[in-house]
Predict the structure.
Amino acid sequence: MSDFVQTMKDWRRMCDAYTTDDAARCCQGCPMDGRGCGAIYEDGNADPEVIEREVNQWAAEHPEPVYPTWEKYLADLMMLDMMCDKTDNPNSVENYMRKTPIPAEIAKKLGIEPKEGV
């Protein structure tokens, strides 16, 4: 059985990908369409292993976008060298910026595209 927390996160991503404001079109194309995400709550016969398999297959086909690190983004703006000196301190803000991908919600607000081929 896969990691429960990751499966639930992927289920939320999958649901968000097919959710629309138009109730008639909501969930069209979703692997769970017809069985409904509510199936696990409403149907005592719902098979958790089938749901897990569907969610994990969808997640494998739709990987979560990975964004560049702060270092790459700021270097592209030619700001990193002006802002930070290199340091050996692993807990420094500079090292955090060099190694940590930009969170998706911030990247989207900044207009940053996910890295290709990840």
About this structure: The helical segments are 4-18, 39-42, 48-61, 70-76, 80-83, 93-99, 104-110. The CA atoms of residues 74 and 89 lie 20 Å apart.
